[in-house]
Each structure stands twice: as C-alpha cells, then as structure tokens.
Amino acid sequence: MNNIIIAYDSKTGNVQRFINKVKNELDIETVKIHEDSIIQKPFILVTYTTGFGQVPKTTKGFLMKNHQYMIAVASSGNMNWGMKFAVAADEISKKYSVPIILKFELSGTQKDVQRFIEEVRNIDNTCS
C-alpha cells in the first residue's frame, strides 16, 4: 500500500496498540502525529476521544495544518460514555467532510482490526 498512510494520535496507548495490530496484518506506513507534524499525502486518521467527548488537542492542532489530505477517520472510545462513545470521529467527520470508517472500544478487537483493514484496502484501491 503506497497510496495512503495511517496517521494516528494515542495518549494512553489504546490507539497505539490498535495500530500495532493493524501493522501486523497490513503493509502500510503509519505515523504518530504531533501538533506540528506535516503530512503531504492522503491519510486515514485514527485518534481517540478525550474528556467528555472532545477531539484531542494534538489531533486538532495536527488537522489545522493537514486536514486537506485526510480521506477518512476512525476513533477509539469507551462504551461507558454511552452517546459520547468515540464522538471525536463524528466531530472530525462533520467538520472536514470525511467518512468515519470505524469506531472501536479501547484498543479494539480482532473483528475491529479486520473491519478497519478492509476499509483501508477499499480506500487504497480507490486512490490507485
């Protein structure tokens, strides 16, 4: 997969563990973002939801400089938050008009990983 990359933000390690599971099964470049990161090729963003349903500050800062290359978003969350579960994906999707490809709990299940990989492959095929 040379057409897209996965850019991710992880605070507690849940998203990092999810990305590690994905990398074990998918040959794709991944980049852990920082507010000052610059990416100039199509990417799928994987982030987490923080506080009471907010997009993380680092993700917001990153998107201010890179949103034009984002083609999809996924987010982790905790089901204990009910309606606020993984709402960072909803906010990012709405603000930047990109599809949500997955919401997963904590570091995701194997089923979540497989669904994410299928979505990434579908997107990569359309970017070819």
TrEMBL record:
Q: Which SUPFAM superfamilies match?
A: Flavoproteins
- GO MF annotation list: FMN binding
Look up the signal peptide feature and give its range: none
Q: Name one Pfam family in it.
A: Flavodoxin_NdrI
Query: Which top-level group of life is the source organism from?
Result: Bacteria
Q: What is this protein called?
A: Ribonucleotide reduction protein NrdI
* Taxonomic source organism: Anoxybacillus flavithermus
- Mind giving the lineage of the organism this protein is from? Bacteria, Bacillati, Bacillota, Bacilli, Bacillales
